[in-house]
Amino acid sequence: MDGPLSTRVTSQSAAATHTVDCVVFGFAEGELRVLLVRRAVAPFAGEWVLPGGAMAADQTLEETGQRVLRELVGVSNLQLTQVATYSAPDRHPVRRVVTTTYYALVRPEHHTPAARGYLSEAAWHRLTELPPLGFDHRELLDDAHLRLIQHLRTRPLAFALLPDDFTLSEIQQLYEEILGESLDRRNFRRKVLAYDFLIDTGVKRSGVKGGPAVYRSDPALLHRALTAPHI
Amino acid sequence: MDGPLSTRVTSQSAAATHTVDCVVFGFAEGELRVLLVRRAVAPFAGEWVLPGGAMAADQTLEETGQRVLRELVGVSNLQLTQVATYSAPDRHPVRRVVTTTYYALVRPEHHTPAARGYLSEAAWHRLTELPPLGFDHRELLDDAHLRLIQHLRTRPLAFALLPDDFTLSEIQQLYEEILGESLDRRNFRRKVLAYDFLIDTGVKRSGVKGGPAVYRSDPALLHRALTAPHI
DNA sequence: TCAAAAGTGTTCGGGCTACACCCATGC
DNA sequence: GCATGGGTGTAGCCCGAACACTTTTGA
After folding, report:
1. Chain A residues near residue B99 by CB distance under 8 angstroms
2. pLDDT(A1) > 60
3. Statement to judge: residues B86 and B23 lie in one domain
4. CA nearest neighbour of B12 among A57, A77, A99
């Protein structure tokens, strides 16, 4: 809100830049990963950070997140979920920066990140082996991960991270990765099948022992499960 | 985050003012209420809105929320919980405003709001009988209420809204108000007593039928319950 | 004495957890 | 053929929901 204070207030707050940082989660080779970029310029030149950028005058924060991911690392059309906004005056060493974070879930095989702009590198990192991050991005990342866990406990979100076809064990691995705990196979199967948006393709995956059944999620039913049943 | 784009980027985003709006919940006469203020100036002069104001250059968003509530409506030292950040370019009719919302829980009897600054009025409103709100504040308020409900389902937050002494029925009324549903008295008593931070003062409330026992919450145990057991 | 609210225990069902054996496949 | 993982069912426990009667107090 604001009132007649406009001028005083605008001059005060003009010093702050509003940026968006994105915590992009991917799942590959059985491990949960995060998309990080390496800065080519000061401050924190050479350090790994979350991909992000400043809000444009004609864009919302979410649109800014989409644009930044497209421009900097070449990934498009992600579903971004807002996490939090950070405003400590000294969180950026040079000037005042207020940052809103979003998380996104992607299939890494669909998106090959490539560093552009002021970046020297863009790569997936295992959540268990993160490099030191510049700014306060480690905190931002951890907060986003916690929020993801919260959301995952109430909704079948994780399918956005999986390829079209997957086995039940692959889903389970994914859940175990995100939640950071191991789950009982039988109980997990029962629960996930109860969602009833999984389709048994009838195919069995070859090249892997046991010959597990290959499933696919029904997009319409999955969407219904994601939107309808609030908790 | 941002890099060599600084100048371009800063000029773009300098147009946006960052403000904080607060959704202050109170509980009085058995009903959940929200603190609203009436604007004395354009835009939306004469309309009810959430109390809020622009972020100061040397303050965090949360500190701004505290200051705004102190300056505009004379309430201090609330615990503010961040809800979300809104950034639609046209959400303010005059210029670009990005707003972060917080909610707070207070005991109305401890805080007598008084309009100051650019406000003509400050008053508690029943959540069930809200006036039309200026800007997009109705959406902000509803989102904050939903977040409060979510938090309340996992933590015994509501005691911040109650006087020092209260009966079990009063707590139950409060929960029913916030959640918008009625609860079984016996189940509710059992659950709330299981938290084990309630102290039976031994006193019985007079002037009310049934002679209900008066309870008090142990500050230390309550604080532990609020912070320790994450879900 | 009557009306209204306080106080109290038990039962039922559903969901989660724990757990062991046989089958299919790759090597 | 053997090692690895896939596939299946059941029993116990805990939590939450439903539910009725007696006691206390104000009017």
Report:
1. 1
2. no
3. yes
4. A57
